[in-house]
Structures are given as structure tokens and as C-alpha cells.
Amino acid sequence: MGEVYIGIDLGGTKIKGILMNEDGLIVNQYSTSTGNNLDNLFEVIEKLIQENKAMSSRICGIGVGCAGLIDHKNGITIESANLPFLKRFPLRYTLYKFTGIETTIDNDVKMGAIGEMFYGEGKGVKDFVFLTLGTGIGGAIIINGKVYRGITNHAGEIGHINLQTAGPDCGCGKKGCYESLASGSAILKYILYGIKMKRDTMILEKVKGDISKINTSLIVEMAENGDRLCLEALTESARYTGKVLSYLINILNPEKIIIGGGLSEVENILFPVIRETAQLYSLVVPFQNCLIIKAGLGTESGVIGAAQIALLQYKGIEI
Amino acid sequence: MGEVYIGIDLGGTKIKGILMNEDGLIVNQYSTSTGNNLDNLFEVIEKLIQENKAMSSRICGIGVGCAGLIDHKNGITIESANLPFLKRFPLRYTLYKFTGIETTIDNDVKMGAIGEMFYGEGKGVKDFVFLTLGTGIGGAIIINGKVYRGITNHAGEIGHINLQTAGPDCGCGKKGCYESLASGSAILKYILYGIKMKRDTMILEKVKGDISKINTSLIVEMAENGDRLCLEALTESARYTGKVLSYLINILNPEKIIIGGGLSEVENILFPVIRETAQLYSLVVPFQNCLIIKAGLGTESGVIGAAQIALLQYKGIEI
């Protein structure tokens, strides 16, 4: 009887679930919207368990990656900006009671880094940084093949590096953090401000004047079609990313910086600017020896990492 | 017969040497100026060997900390801005041939971090950053009780974090690096520019108009006596340090940031500003859990660390 593992990526808008086998292959998947409580999470897990009954496999573990600050040791979600119902919630125990299956929870970006480490761009790489560029910006640091956590499990809070003394408000309560300047939300704000300032752009026409319909995908599409404002918003974001990458390169001298999250899909526009800016501010040798590269698993790093952590937990391998 | 170790701190202007016993106690010391070739280094080592003959101890190892990029594995000094005669020089082999004693060489800031780890503020601390504020600015990162080096041994190049897009020229060839804005040299430039701009200061009178006599010690003395320009130059430097510390806190979430080097002696003026600025730009919990503190060994961290690395090498302990 084969062994399979459930991996869950519990995001602010969407829950992704997979069944992964021992070889890291996804054998089944199910996704739905997140909702305002745990019901949809239970639904995803229940669905995967049901699907598995048709196969002759045993589910040996569940891994859940969740945005925000997670006490992975005690299995408690401390704080998650987009999942208010998970404030100080014993998620691991709750899921274990519901399923009878050993469960592991951790921060979604750390899960993504683990996914990349085993099946993506992090394979065989001792020291790397994993960065997710999406609605928010997250980071995780792998040192010597292990997740580096720091003294209070906050290591890798790259999104909150200050880049403007009194810049835009950030979700963390401070001003001018990298995230507040370069995330998907920041790009959207850049466009909306451009529209307000009557900058030349085709995006307003595209949404027939309904600015609520403007989102990152549309901004990317317009940029690819040559819209100057959209292109400018994306390159502005990429320049901030490049600067922060230079900090990571000078401080950590990593072998790779792996970039995931929705925005990493816009490789052709963002990556040349990111690399050029990183080079401008990094020491020569560390820059030359650091590969800045798109996540090998695309936007699936997190959910695969979540299943992988369940596998490692089952095999008794510490990470 | 007791065992002793030679520790050398090979700086741009001064060579410090010590004999350290197994308990980390300094039993003898000798210092001289650096000079333009290896003669003075040989002199310091020869002197310590001679001094030791009067004691009934055996010298079991030599450790040399040296500014710049050092290939510690092969014992070669690659590049050292203030020690041009050490460019691509096999220093370890040369000293071994001269003394017949096993020799270890490494970067001076890494040596300082090791000194602090064993005998200073880093004792019992798993993850910390060691920063030296002097004529230049150096950094070393200790993770899990070991020196973290990165892929090309450049990890910890904190002095070259860019803080101003097109700021002052830096020794690394770039512009606006933290070091170019906050080091002892930068503080001196700040004062000289202030004098040129006819700012109100007593320092010019103090040196009787001879600006070549102005140095960091004098600036500190004048600041302590309330000279506004000198105080301003130091607090400006401290603000840059605080900002960089916030980056280290957000990225690495270390238990301590230990500050050594000559400028760390100016604790009463610099540290309150450093802490306040670091707090302004750090996430709350990681800041609250990070002690920003002066090096326990003062300006001796490097030379003690150098002797300690010789001891560890002799005992076969990898670091």
C-alpha cells in the first residue's frame, strides 16, 4: 500500500489542496475559496480523503502552510492578517481531531522554500533565499539545508525592510516598508494614483471606467501590450526588489535567490530590472555567484512544500 | 607544560599580538605599527615566542586575523585594502615556514565574532551578528554557533549595504554604501565639510587651525564636551547604523547584535540613537527580542578570537 500526504496552502482568498506520493508526485488535487471560517478547509481535506479511498494508498500526514506568524512547534496560528478567524488558534490539534492524521503547520513562505528545496530550484543548494512576490511579500531563508528561523521565528521578514523613511503605510503599522512599495497591492495603488493624476494609460478604457476591475493580472497584460503606466508600475516594483536583493546578497552571500508568488510569473518584465538593480548595489563577487531565478515549482511551491513537510514529519526527518 | 596560543590582529595601522592560555587568559602581549611589509609581523611573532621561552609553556598554534577578503581554507590573503603587500599572498604557509607552528588565518571581523562567541557577549548565543564600527565597517554572522560564510565567503558584508542611490564614493567602487556614510572616515569627512561650510564648531580652534590633526578620538572628545557639529556627525552616523540594524533584525531575527570597533567605545552618544532608529524601522517582536550591545571584549575581540581559532584548530574543533 503506497503512502500519500496531504498538502494544503491556506491563502487569504484560496485554499489549495493536493495529495502527494512519496516520490513528490501530485496524485490528486482540490481547491476552493477560503471563506470566513474553517468550513472550506475541512471541505478540502475531506474531499482529498474521499478521493484517496478510491486508491490503495494510506494518508500518512497532513501539512498546512498558512500566511502569517505560525508557532510551528505548538501547532498554533498566532496571527494572520487575511485570516482573522485563525488568531491564536490551535489549528494542528483541530485538524488532527477532525482527521485522526498527524498534522504539521507552518508559515506558507517557509513551506514554499521547503518545496523548492526538495523539488524545485533549491535542490542541492545549501544556502538560498526564497522570496514570494504577490499581494504581499514574504521571505524565507535556508541555511545549510535547513529553514533558518531566528530567535522568535521571524527570520526572513524581508517585506518589512524600510526603503523610504516616511513612505506609504504598511500592513505592519510602519511606513515605507519594501512590501508597501513593491507588492501587488502597491502596484495597484501606483496605477490608481496614475489614473487619478490623469496619466496616459489604456487600462481605464479596458475596464470601461470601472476601476474596481483593475487587478494585477490586468496590469501585467496591459504592460505586455506596451501600456506605459502599467510598465512603469511594474518596473518601479522591480527596482525596489532589486535593491532588497542587493541587501540579501551583501549580507547572506547566498547561492540562489528564488522568486515565487504570482508576480514571479511576469518574468520577462520584472527579472531583467531586478537583476540590473541588484547588480548596481551588490558587491561584485557575491552578485556574480548568486543566481536570481524564478521558482521551479511556480506558484505551487507552497502546497508541495506543505505535503513534503508532512512526509518529512512522518519519516522523522527534522527540517 | 601549559599550552599557549598566539593571536594576531593585523590591522591597517597596527599589529596587536597576544599569548593566550587554554583558559582564554592573556599571558603576554606585544604590539607595533604595521609598516609596509611583513617585517613588523615577524617581529611581533618573534617577540611573543621569545617572551614565551621564559615561561614553561608550549606554543601550540598561531591565529592571524586580517582585514579584507581571506581564503581561510587555503591560508591565502586575497585582497586587503590597507595591506597592499598581502595581495594574493600565502600568509599561512609563510608563517608556518618561519615559526614551525601550525597557523590559521581568517578575516579580522570573523575573528572578532569568534572572540565574542567564546569570551564576550556571544557566549551561549546561538545566532548573532557582530559589527565593527571603526575606520571602516565590517560584519560577521554567527548562525547556530558557527561562522556563516555564504557561497564565496563574503557573507556579512554589511558595510556595503546601499543607503543612498548616488551617495559618497565607497572603497568598494560603488556609491552610497553604509560604510561610506557612517564609518570613522565618513564622520571625519562630515566634520571637514562642516568646517569648509563655516559651521559653528570649536574643533578648529582645538587643533589650532591644522585640520590634519582632526581624528575620530578628537571628534568624540569634542562631542562629549557639547560641540554641536561633532555631536551631529556622530548621531548622523548612528542613525545609519540603526537603519542597517533594522535590516539585520528583520532579515535574521538574531538574539544579539554585538558592536565592536573603535567607535563602539562612544557608547553613551551612539547607542541610544542606534537603538531608537533600529526600533523605528524594525518589526516589533524581533526588535524587542534583539539585544543591541557593545562588544564584551571591547577592541580586543579580534586578537582574542585569533588566538581562540588557533586553540580550536589545535583541538580539532571546527568552527
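qc> The interface with chain A takes residues 126-127, 139, 141, 143-144, 148-158, 160-162, 172-174, 243, 246-248, 250-255, 280-286, 289-290 of chain B (CB under 8 Å).
qc> done
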